[in-house]
Amino acid sequence: MHASILLGLLPFAAAQVTQVVEAPPPAPVRLNTTKSGVAPTLPTPFNGVDTLQGAIMMPLPPQPGYVGLNGTAPAQTNLPAATYRATLPSSMFNNLVGTTVRGYVEGIGTPAGVRFTVQLSGLPEQARYGPFNWHIHTLPVPANGNCTATTSHFDPTNRGELIMCEAARPETCQAGDLAGKHGGKIATPGNFSTSFVEPYLSTQPGSAYFFGGLSFVLHATNTTRLTCANFVQVNSTSNGTSPSGTGPVVPVFTGAAEKIGAGAGALVVALAAALF
Ligand SMILES: *[C@@H]1O[C@H](CO)[C@@H](O)[C@H](O)[C@H]1NC(C)=O
Ligand SMILES: *[C@@H]1O[C@H](CO)[C@@H](O)[C@H](O)[C@H]1NC(C)=O
Ligand SMILES: *[C@@H]1O[C@H](CO)[C@@H](O)[C@H](O)[C@H]1NC(C)=O
Ligand SMILES: *[C@@H]1O[C@H](CO)[C@@H](O)[C@H](O)[C@H]1NC(C)=O
Ligand SMILES: *[C@@H]1O[C@H](CO)[C@@H](O)[C@H](O)[C@H]1NC(C)=O
Ligand SMILES: *[C@@H]1O[C@H](CO)[C@@H](O)[C@H](O)[C@H]1NC(C)=O
Ligand SMILES: *[C@@H]1O[C@H](CO)[C@@H](O)[C@H](O)[C@H]1NC(C)=O
Ligand SMILES: [Cu+2]
């Protein structure tokens, strides 16, 4: 399991999507509570952690497998043309925002990475709750729909949260930081859609970059998790095209089960951030 410090407030770099506007970084704060988020170990004594521009300044040694902030993900090529779709549930994890966000995020393997389509409707009021961050997280949503249990951003290169993603260097970002790499937080009112090819995720089960079975999470601007859903394999793309080479559909959470198994052996400790 690639635990990193949980953080939903990643600011973003370059905007490829015109609807996206840059939000000011949050002021530095000291987080003293242990609530949600994961870290490899908790310092003793725990005196809190500082944040800078929404990123937790991690005073801990890196985890095994850490490749450094400059570690890069290899491009994922010649992927199985399987389709994985996260369909948002009919009731939201946080239902206090006046709307229900519906829609899906779908990824299909291509020779040059995963082609994603994002279709969201019913976004909450931007002025009060936006802009909205969106990521793939480390663990699946459990059956009770608890988005908090998805823990941190999917981060197979163990980049961590110290430095925000530079969209111009996507290979250095957390693999699951879709917003950071693909247009930033969603700042459109109502509906949002986008599509892109993501070279640093995979439809190959067993790959460190495999996102099947993992979760898509949508956050309000204060990092609260609004809604979430797991990527399950489907037989056809949203436009009805049968992807070639999909083969038999695997049981719904096969990929996730492997990741949960691996994660269970890792020492993860809830850290900081009453935010989550
Ligand atoms: C967090 O802990 C530090 C060190 O004990 C303390 O100085 C600071 O006031 C605390 N902050 C809050 C918000 O409680
Ligand atoms: C790591 O990346 C940062 C930001 O791009 C750069 O300033 C720094 O020199 C790099 N460090 C190494 C060791 O490459
Ligand atoms: C938003 O998406 C919903 C669901 O797809 C659709 O019914 C509605 O017409 C869309 N609204 C606009 C303004 O496009
Ligand atoms: C949701 O998940 C979080 C993190 O695992 C946990 O602390 C919390 O108790 C869970 N809540 C429910 C209702 O299961
Ligand atoms: C995929 O196709 C198989 C066999 O036709 C069917 O049993 C299964 O329900 C389908 N799964 C989905 C998600 O459509
Ligand atoms: C359907 O989607 C697939 C994969 O996203 C794409 O290759 C194909 O061109 C689309 N077909 C139509 C008719 O839109
Ligand atoms: C964040 O915003 C949501 C939606 O308004 C709210 O339910 C939640 O309590 C807020 N969390 C914090 C820590 O302010
Ligand atoms: Cu997230």
UniProtKB/TrEMBL annotation:
Single Gene Ontology MF annotation: metal ion binding
Which organism encodes this protein? Ophiobolus disseminans
Could you give one GO CC term from the UniProt record?
extracellular region
What is catalyzed by this enzyme?
Answer: 2 superoxide + 2 H(+) = H2O2 + O2
Q: Specify the signal sequence span.
A: 1-15
Q: What does the UniProt entry say about where the protein is found?
A: Cell envelope; Secreted
Name of the protein: superoxide dismutase
* Protein family per UniProt: Belongs to the Cu-Zn superoxide dismutase family.
Lineage of origin: Eukaryota, Fungi, Dikarya, Ascomycota, Pezizomycotina
| Keyword Cell division attributed | no
EC number(s) for this protein? 1.15.1.1
- The membrane-spanning stretches of this chain are none
Q: Which InterPro entries match?
A: SOD-like_Cu/Zn_dom_sf
Q: Which UniProt keywords apply?
A: Antioxidant, Secreted, Signal
Predominant location of this chain?
other
